[in-house]
């Protein structure tokens, strides 16, 4: 009888401990899964949104600096601003490619490269003509560089919107995993007792 009682006592103690360990393991798995999804979100969707937004900002900066140069070819600060913006655009593009790798945004991002190359060619043409004929440089800027920038800008704005949409969707889905793993959505959780 004592042996039987001891077995029941051990069973009564072991069952809740086992259930506790299983619940703890599920919670830890959920938290690790949430952390993994959040890390993925930061390094892909959010990073892509941030870098594409940076590309757009640097494109605007290049355009402003180029216009300032056409107005005043001796403006050394405008040359500096143009060079910095061009370099930062290239850096942001490289980061965006890495961040978007394997996502649906990767192909759309690659489509920007030929447009940017075309724009860079038009910008070089403006800078070249500007040295000899300011009025002609204004025409090249208006009729050649600006239309290419508008096309690139449209694609950048579209990509910013898509990347933010993707980031928002992933961000919205991430907390659901954490809530479920912590029992907020599971039957029998503390919320059922409220």
Report on this model:
There is one protein chain. The longest helix has 70 residues, at 2-71. Residues 184-194 have low confidence and may be disordered. The chain is mainly alpha-helical. The protein has helices spanning 2-71, 76-100, 105-110, 112-130, 134-181. The protein has 5 helices and no strands. 87% of the residues lie in helices and 0% in strands.
Q: What sequence of helices (H) and strands (E) makes up the elements?
A: HHHHH
**Uncertain regions spanning at least 5 consecutive residues:** 184-194
What would you call the structural class? mainly alpha
How many strand segments? 0
Largest sheet, in brief, is:
none
Characterize the overall form.
rod-shaped
Mean pLDDT: 82
For the terminal residues, how far apart are their CA atoms? 42 Å
* Number of helical regions: 5
Helix content: over 70%
Strand proportion: under 5%
Rg for CA atoms: 29 Å
Query: What multimeric state do the chains show?
Result: single chain
Question: TL;DR of this structure?
Answer:
The protein is an all-alpha fold. It has five helices and no strands. It starts with a helix and ends in a 13-residue tail after the last helix.
Key terms:
194 residues; mainly alpha; 87% helix; disordered C terminus
């Amino acid at each position: 009888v004592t042996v039987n009682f001891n077995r029941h006592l051990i069973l009564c103690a072991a069952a809740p401990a086992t259930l506790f360990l299983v619940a703890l393991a599920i919670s830890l798995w959920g938290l690790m899964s949430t952390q993994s999804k959040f890390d993925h979100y930061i390094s892909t969707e959010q990073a892509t949104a941030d870098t594409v937004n940076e590309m757009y900002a640097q494109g605007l900066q290049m355009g402003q600096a180029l216009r300032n140069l056409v107005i005043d070819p001796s403006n050394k600060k405008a040359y500096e601003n143009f060079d910095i913006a061009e370099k930062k655009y290239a850096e942001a593009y490289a980061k965006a490619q890495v961040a978007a790798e394997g996502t649906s945004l990767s192909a759309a991002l690659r489509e920007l490269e030929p447009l940017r190359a075309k724009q860079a060619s038009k910008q070089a043409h403006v800078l070249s003509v500007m040295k000899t004929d300011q009025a002609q440089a204004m025409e090249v800027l208006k009729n050649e560089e600006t239309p290419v920038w508008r096309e690139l800008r449209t694609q950048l704005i579209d990509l910013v919107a898509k990347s933010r949409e993707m980031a928002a969707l992933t961000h919205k889905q991430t907390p659901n995993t954490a809530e479920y793993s912590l029992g907020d959505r599971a039957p029998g959780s503390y919320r059922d007792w409220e």
